[in-house]
Amino acid sequence: xxxxxxxxxxxxxxxxxxxxxxxxxxxxxxxxxxxxxxxxxxxxxxxxxxxxxxxxxxxxxxxxxxxxxxxxxxxxxxxxxxxxxxxxxxxxxxxxxxxxxxxxxxxxxxxxxxxxxxxxxxxxxxxxxxxxxxxxxxxxxxxxxxxxxxxxxxxxxxxxxxxxxxxxxxxxxxxxxxxxxxxxxxxxxxxxxxxxxxxxxxxxxxxxxxxxxxxxxxxxxxxxxxxxxxxxxxxxxxxxxxxxxxxxxxxxxxxxxxxxxxxxxxxxxxxxxxxxxxxxxxxxxxxxxxxxxxxxxxxxxxxxxxxxxxxxxxxxxxxxxxxxxxxxxxxxxxxxxxxxxxxxxxxxxxxxxxxxxxxxxxxxxxxxxxxxxxxxxxxxxxxxxxxxxxxxxxxxxxxxxxxxxxxxxxxxxxxxxxxxxxxxxxxxxxxxxxxxxxxxxxxxxxxxxxxxxxxxxxxxxxxxxxxxxxxxxxxxxxxxxxxxxxxxxxxxxxxxxxxxxxxxxxxxxxxxxxxxxxxxxxxxxxxxxxxxxxxxxxxxxxxxxxxxxxxxxxxxxxxxxxxxxxxxxxxxxxxxxxxxxxxxxxxxxxxxxxxxxxxxxxxxxxxxxxxxxxxxxxxxxxxxxxxxxxxxxxxxxxxxxxxxxxxxxxxxxxxxxxxxxxxxxxxxxxxxxxxxxxxxxxxxxxxxxxxxxxxxxxxxxxxxxxxxxxxxxxxxxxxxxxxxxxxxxxxxxxxxxxxxxxxxxxxxxxxxxxxxxxxxxxx
Length: 763
Fold this sequence. Notes:
By secondary structure, the protein is α/β, with parallel strands linked by helices. It folds into 5 domains: 3-165, Lambda Exonuclease, Chain A (Alpha-Beta Complex); 186-271 and 347-392 and 516-561, 3-Layer(aba) Sandwich (Rossmann fold), CATH 3.40.50.300; 281-346; 399-513, no CATH class; 564-760, P-loop containing nucleotide triphosphate hydrolases (Rossmann fold, 3-Layer(aba) Sandwich). It has 26 helices and 24 strands. The protein has an 8-stranded parallel beta sheet, with helices on both faces. Strands 1, 2, 3, 4, 5 and 6 form a 6-stranded mixed beta sheet that branches. A 6-stranded parallel beta sheet has the order 19-24-23-20-22-21, with helices on both faces. Strand 3 (67-80) and strand 4 (86-94) form a beta hairpin. Helix 1 packs across helix 4, helix 10 (301-315) packs across helix 11 (321-331) and helix 25 (694-705) packs across helix 26.
């Protein structure tokens, strides 16, 4: 049997020839990537008979005929010589000096030779010239490396590359064949569907089959994770898609996806899944100095990564954080970068939203064809609105550039001067802000763009050529911040404002994305389907608008599978508005204490802020018997272990009543399951409105100008979503019973009352 795989030139040669350390990859990756502007400048000098962006393709049989590799790509230039011969031109921008690139960059040579081979086959030539054109930043000088290759030499070269790539490609193809057969035969992993679950799963499959998007409000208890993953896996079995991205906002919901994948595997699925954990959590920094540049997991990373990937996928299917860490230590590779490389070969990727939507770190090596064969499952999708605003916004701080100006004096005058000019402009803006200390505009900050472009070029050059500066890490951070600012600047449109805000000597300039809907749509449009789901996509029309849904996209609202008798809801009509808190504090604390004293068990009380939490906690403690009631509280500095300890305290069968004080919108207000007797009651204090501030007011004014209710868009809808999430912690299974307390008089008023879930029975 012959297996066929399709790839483009660059990932193929990178797999075979990439080498060296992660530090250089981190620092020079942007400098060495092809820049559109620099490419265009070089190509504009081509002769009238030269061609640019030339599409080429070929097929390579290898592994004794077991594998056929279909390769394609676009050469930067095909130059016609005076003798009638052709030369392939590959253009690269770099901050390295001509001396530093001597003899290096095998990937670049390999890329050019591959194009030369395909051109030779297309034209029938027996010899082709091969050229690398380097444009050196920041000065823009050019250096050229040239050679020529016979067709026989090129044939031997590409065949060797194919044979070296074949073992990994064959491993993945054989796994894919087994995966598809298992997915096709897979049955639903439970004996029966819950109410609404079959409808939800069917809607997901239909959405993927028809290449649509779906927004689904699926209340707690629907079994959202399995209801989306199961039909998506069945779509793999039908050949509709080849990969699933399960996107989450928090670690707690990631664990649910891993549990569902384990369940599917126990019932016959054969899938490789990779969970990507944030770098700061998975890094072996306790063992190595990551910032010092001598981490043994980073040094020589690219020399070992191929063996690590081969080993991983030969022996594992569920690649969780623990599995990744084991193989990372075994092969001495950075666990975070290892997870990213593994994700490109996995069937299911469980990761944060930003790996798909954030223009700074989204999966850059995915081709449009690969995206077109992938489905997005976006859990707790209500979070994507605010996360979208964050991902599509960018800011700069004056202090960062002042530090670099001082730190690079006498070390790299290019960097010092560029940082000084940015710093001086921000000082000018501070003066313009006047006594108010802020101003808002609707235009992109073109002056800042012009100042940042040379700063980025000079910073790249300094990071390559200067080492040992005490401000090196600060320069790296400012370099990435400047790049992000320029990248976001290219997205700037009517949905943006630029504001400047001062705080003493500090100046912040921010491009603030008010409406992320169009940019979220653009980020997801090349994927076959996207399924946005949450228990709290209400009001649904608001989320349709904010998530960029089109008229053709589907919506689904599933009724709660639980009976009204499971939930006892009480509204305490006290005002929790800031101006009334001191007046109502004692009455509210007394009512909460009365509930706990009457009905022992485990309780979670949610508050809109840490400050208000502490106020009520003090008043509450004075009204209960500390011999009978244990109190624990969330704080802003909790470690992962602290969070686990907090949740573990909610055990069934405790002798003493437990009351946990937490904040709405925090880690304990969504994505956690305290089923059965682990949770007796929940109190939600306040309507969750975000704190009044500059950004919220800008959002309010933006939507008011567009005929919407700006206050609802900026404050009410986000706040009530937190209320719904917090209250949803209580009833998690068909056996759960509990009491839900809603403490605020606004819960009895519009629009707040209409935004409460039907199953709470408060309308």
